[in-house]
Amino acid sequence: MAGTIGTWTILDAAHAALRTVAVGLTAEDLEQPTPCEQWNVAQVLQHAAGDQLAYVAAITGEDGPTENPFAPSGTLDRSPVELVDAAVSASAAAFATVARDAETVPSPLPQGALAPWLVAGYCALDAAVHAWDVAMATGRPSPLTPELAKELMAAATELTEPLRGWGAYAAVVPGETGDDEVAALVRYLGRRPDWSA
């Protein structure tokens, strides 16, 4: 697939979004509810970081997350910034080893090995949508731009269906007139664009 996904800059943008929302979070912020109904901010960050490390493990064979990303404890063993930075740095390094013209690349998804653009796109989707979750939970501006959301939708529509109900993605929320690309993406992933705590 041509475009940003093919050059991994979509992953860089998603990682930047996740890093941005991790900065300056307080202990009170970490307890806030999120659009992921079962998880607070700390748990969403743990899930997002754990998922990045799951991609690292699939690509490199290195150790993956130390706890189940789908059952996050909510107790951080370091600052939010340190947690996120370690995970996205490892993810970026792992994807730097992936040949863009490879036929497939391993993934931690139930679908297994997939085209590189799709694995990178779905890894980016995970980071970016959870960055949006944290931003909404803490009253910050959305880190998702319409351009990024449009590119993420390509991966979302390819892979999300078998993953719904695992905590991160709920049933599609029906669209409304006037939805932009960000609203369309978050609705597709089971979130209301106007969500508030």
Automatic annotation (TrEMBL):
Q: What is a single molecular function from GO for this protein? A: metal ion binding
Pfam families, per database record: MDMPI_N
Q: Give the coiled coil ranges.
A: none
- Domain Mycothiol-dependent maleylpyruvate isomerase metal-binding as annotated: residue spans: 11-135
What is the protein named?
A: TIGR03086 family protein
Instruction: Record the organism.
Output: Actinospica durhamensis
> What taxonomic lineage is listed for the species of origin?
Bacteria, Bacillati, Actinomycetota, Actinomycetes, Catenulisporales
